[in-house]
Amino acid sequence: MMKRRGFIAAAGAAFVAGCNKIADSDTGSRLLGAAEDWHKKAHRLLTDREALAPEYPRSAISPFFRGNGSTDPQNGDYQQQAAENFVNWRLDVRGLVDNPMKLSLDNIRKLPQRTQVTRHDCVEGWSAIGEWTGPQLSLLLDAAGLKPEAKFIVFRCADNLNGQDYYESVDLIDAYHPQTIVAHLLNGEPLPIRNGAPLRMRVERQLGYKHPKYLTAIEAVASLDDIGGGKGGYWEDRAGYQWYAGI
Amino acid sequence: MKRHAATTRIWHWLNLVCVVVLFMSGLTISNAHRRLYWGDWGFSVEQAWLIVPRFPDWMTIPGYYSLAVARDWHILMAWPFALLLLFMWVAMLVNRHFSRDIATSRREWRPSAIRHDIVQHLKLNFEHEGGKYNFLQKLAYGLVLGVFLPMMIFTGIAISPGMEPTFGWLVDLLGGRQSARSLHFIFAFALFGFFVVHVVLVILAGPIGQIRDMITGGRHDEA
Q: How many CB pairs lie under 8 A apart between chains A and B?
């Protein structure tokens, strides 16, 4: 019995070693990266660019909305801003835009709002349902006037996690999606610190790590190569997560 | 015993590679959040119907904990897995492997016939009269090809947030995203159960001949 178990374990280890060898090779890693792209293309082929993620009735809202990653940033002046109720918080809209903007929370609250009860899916596997309110990102981008060379929207964040500033990015299809909003309310209340106070992105057709919290700037760029580690997001740089998180 | 068709043999071995990689990388993904829920949402112990044990690294791909690398493998192998299953179904329907060898007749569902088949299995008598497969084999292969493997694909699609705007009906049909995730896990282990029984029976029936036949097609050429 021990011998057989030893054999299975050895066969398993050899198989895993083979897989790792493939993953580490140039062709292998290109293949693994290409598969992400095939899924994105398949999703985009099958799904209209405006098609909405499901929205739920208010009665479906989870009793508690779990927070992951940073849940109480200690870096910079975040704690002081929180103590002041974020009255001095500014959201920069910058980069490849005609009219860079600096918006206060009051400015953001006065814009036309979208409210949506959606499900948040973490890459780890859990889900929670919450009601989010805020202006559509498309509104801010149109007001700032995107330059034609802008291809991606980068989200800058106040939280520093394990020594690196959190950031994320989406392409213009997701940036202009009707459910992509800059949320300042969760379930009708200002965002709790755990969930990204005072502002967080909602990118409803992708996994949770694409919804950055503690949002300080929205930056239009032509390429992601020179941002952070060059892979388009904190977890993408740090752990190799897929940039397209619709899978 | 009829020969195994070339399409059956090619699919069998390629599918094995896909399923093994998907299963072992799936164990790493399970380790990332070891709780299963029913319904649309769930994130903590109170909502869970099952706390899954942590699978040791030697069982997993990549052999150490990396959700990102495991997802890379899972996402890659999902493609050949799904396309090969589609290919196998087309091949089985066209070459009549399904209607001739796997589809059961009403006669075979009679309790006495099923009992006879179980007794023959317990006696390790694998000589079957007439058809290529006996009733229990037909049932097992039919379930794997018709339910377990397709359900891995459907529940997988239902977990994917980018697919949901188009396949929301599928998510609803499966009872919500967390139910789909639970079913993905359950069908994965149903397949694992099949794998174990399949391998044990192959060993009991004479592994060298069985494996050789699944590679070369088998000696008794008929069709």
A: 142
Q: Tell me if A244 is assigned to some domain.
A: no
> pLDDT tens-digit profile of A197-209?
999 999 999 999 9
Q: Do A116 and A197 have their domain in common? A: yes
Residue A247 within a domain: no
Whether the CB of A31 is below 8 Å from some CB of chain B: the reply is: yes
Rounded Cα–Cα distance for residues A13 and A10 (Å):
5
In a domain, A96, yes or no: yes
Residues A20 and A78 in one domain: no
**d(C-alpha A246, C-alpha A37), whole Å:** 11
Look up the CATH number of domain B6-216. Answer: 1.20.950.20
Q: Which residue of A has its CA nearest to B80?
A: A35
Per residue in B67-83, pLDDT tens?
Answer: 999 999 999 999 999 99
The ipTM, to two decimals, is 0.92
Please report how many Cα atoms fall inside a 13 Å half-sphere around the Cα of residue A101, on the Cβ side.
20
How confident is the model over A165-178, as a mean pLDDT?
Answer: 97
Enclosing domain of residue A36: 1-46
Interface test with A, best of B19, B23, B40, B41 (most A CBs within 10 A): B41
Chain A interface includes B62 (CB < 8 A): yes
Structural tokens at position A110: 């006065």
Within this chain, do residues A31 and A57 fall inside the same structural domain, yes or no? Answer: no
Q: In chain A, which residue's Cα lies nearest the Cα of B60?
A: A16
